[in-house]
Every structure is written in C-alpha cells, then in structure tokens.
Amino acid sequence: MNLANNITGKVVVITGASSGLGETTARLLASKGANVVLGARREENLIKITNEINSELNGKAVYLKTDVTKKDDVQALIEKAVSEFGKIDVLINNAGLMSIAPMDQLKIDEWESMIDINIKGVLYGIAATLPIFQKQESGHFINISSVAGIKIFSPGGTVYSGTKYAVRAISDGLRHEVGGKIRTTTIEPGAVDSELKYGSSHKESSDFVTDFYKNAIPSDSIARAIVYAIEQPADVDINEIVIRPTVQEF
Ligand SMILES: NC(=O)c1ccc[n+]([C@@H]2O[C@H](COP(=O)([O-])OP(=O)(O)OC[C@H]3O[C@@H](n4cnc5c(N)ncnc54)[C@H](OP(=O)(O)O)[C@@H]3O)[C@@H](O)[C@H]2O)c1
C-alpha cells in the first residue's frame, strides 16, 4: 500500500495554524497533497501561510480568522472546511497558550485564558466536528496535549499542566466513546521551538522557560508524527505519541 495516498486529498482543519507546530504541520501536510483549513486569530499570518501553500505546495489551503474561545468561530471554521471541500477528514486541535507562574502569583486572568483556549477550544472543536464525523462514518481527531499532560510541570506550570491533563483525558474518553470508525490521537510534545515560550508574564518563570527551551527541537519533529498518525490505514488508530528532545528529562 502507498501510504502517501492516505494524505493526498484529505481535508485537514488545523487550529492555531498561524505559527509554530500548527503552521509547520499545515505546510508539511499540504506538501503531501492535503487540503488544509487554517484557523487562528492573526489574520496576516494566515494570509501569508495560505498564499505560500497555494503557490508552492501540492495541496490547497484556505483560512478563516478564528478565536477558539468563541464557539461560533470554531463552528464557522468547520463549516468553511465543509463548504470548500465537501468533507473533513482530520481536525487538529492545536491552538494553545502556556503561561507559566507559581500558583501564589494568582495570575487568574492567565488561568482563565489557558482554560478557555487549551480546554474549551478543544471541546468546541470536537462539538463542531463530531456530528460530521458520525455522519461520514469516518474522521480523525488529533489533540495536542504535552509532556506537561503526563507529569505536572511544577512549580509554575501547574495550571498549564491541568489543561494538558484535561486534553489527554478528553481525548482518550472521546476515543473510548466514539471509536469504531472515528480515530483519536493525542500528541504529547516536549520542548519544541515555537512562540509558545513567550506566553508567560511572570519574569522569573519566563527566564526559566527561555533556558529550558535551549534544548527545544524543531516543530517539524511534531509535524512528521502527525503525518504518521494520519497516513495509517483507516483501521489503525495511533492513540498516543510522546516526543521529547533526546536530552530532555522532564
Ligand atoms: N512548543 C512546545 O514546546 C509545546 C510542547 C507541548 C505542547 N505544545 C502545544 O502545541 C500547541 C501549539 O503550540 P506551539 O508550540 O506551536 O506555539 P505557538 O507558536 O505559540 O502557537 C500557538 C498557536 O495557537 C494559536 N492560538 C492561541 N490562542 C488562540 C485563540 N484564542 N484562538 C485561536 N488560536 C489561538 C496561536 O495563533 P494566534 O495567536 O494567531 O491566534 C498560534 O497559532 C499548543 O497547544 C501547545 O500547548 C507545545
């Protein structure tokens, strides 16, 4: 079997596609012939990435300015995929925020943002897409958790870890409930070079994160793993992939 054919023509919706591993995954999938639908808030980034994909790569790209904390935005993104391409094969719930600070700094606004983006954004994606997957009798959810969803990134990352534990729990529960014809993959990256490291307002934590990310691996390390999960035959569900820099202990 030519596994490359399992990417060509697939319709893949990616949230948080304006930078980092969402952007890199969109480009890699498009290079393999996927049609990609990009969502994020920074429209100027989405326009640039979409134009580059459409002029240089095999697949086709469209975008919709999307704030995943707004369920109507996420619904509109999914509807755009269906109206453009007639179906959805994969939803990559990737949009995320990492704001690191010790609990006693009481960064309540950042706690709320992480919960809204990292957890509720994922749920809105599932809610908008699951009825389509059930009707199609096929589909693939890929949810981006973290190694911080396996072990608590403390001190500082307690709430971030809480959101990523939630993504892992929701992903595996979803797999259990809707499996059969619908695939669910959870990806748990370690330190990956992206803009995520700039999400902390607490100076000492931000300095720690900058130092920690000196060992970060490139975002295409994750994009290749996502391609691997998607290109498997429909009866093979890659449930979980953990990817760390070789030197990373945590
Ligand atoms: N980098 C790592 O070391 C690492 C490790 C483990 C897990 N992860 C996870 O990987 C995912 C991608 O992160 P990244 O590393 O690629 O970081 P990134 O470069 O900061 O990308 C985050 C993406 O999320 C989008 N986003 C944030 N808030 C959003 C919102 N309200 N609505 C829509 N999009 C939103 C951003 O776009 P806009 O700002 O344009 O909206 C951006 O495209 C995240 O879930 C992150 O937690 C990353």
Describe this structure in words.
This protein is of the alpha/beta class and 250 residues long. It has one domain: Rossmann fold (3-Layer(aba) Sandwich). It has 7 helices and 7 strands, in the order βαβαβαβαβαβααβ. The chain has a 7-stranded parallel sheet, with helices on both faces. Bound molecules: NADP nicotinamide-adenine-dinucleotide phosphate.
CATH architecture level-2 label: 3-Layer(aba) Sandwich
Class by alpha and beta content: alpha/beta
Bound molecules: NADP nicotinamide-adenine-dinucleotide phosphate
| Structural Rg | 17 Å
How many separate structural domains? 1
Give the helix proportion (percent range).
40-55%
| Coarse morphology | globular
Biggest sheet overview: 7 strands, parallel
Rounded mean pLDDT is 96
* pLDDT < 50 stretches: none
- Report the β-strand fraction as a percent range: 15-25%
**How many DSSP E strands?**
7
Please give the structural blueprint.
Layout lengths: L10 E5 L4 H12 L3 E6 L2 H14 L4 E5 L5 H15 L4 E4 L14 H29 L2 E6 L13 H21 L3 E8 L13 H10 L7 H12 L8 E4 L7
Parallel strand pairs: 1-2, 1-4, 2-3, 4-5, 5-6, 6-7
Helix pairs in contact: 1-7, 3-4, 4-5
The protein binds NADP nicotinamide-adenine-dinucleotide phosphate.
List keywords for this structure.
250 residues, alpha/beta, Rossmann fold, 7-stranded parallel beta sheet, 7 strands, globular, binds NADP nicotinamide-adenine-dinucleotide phosphate
Short description:
With 250 residues, the chain is α/β, with parallel strands linked by helices.
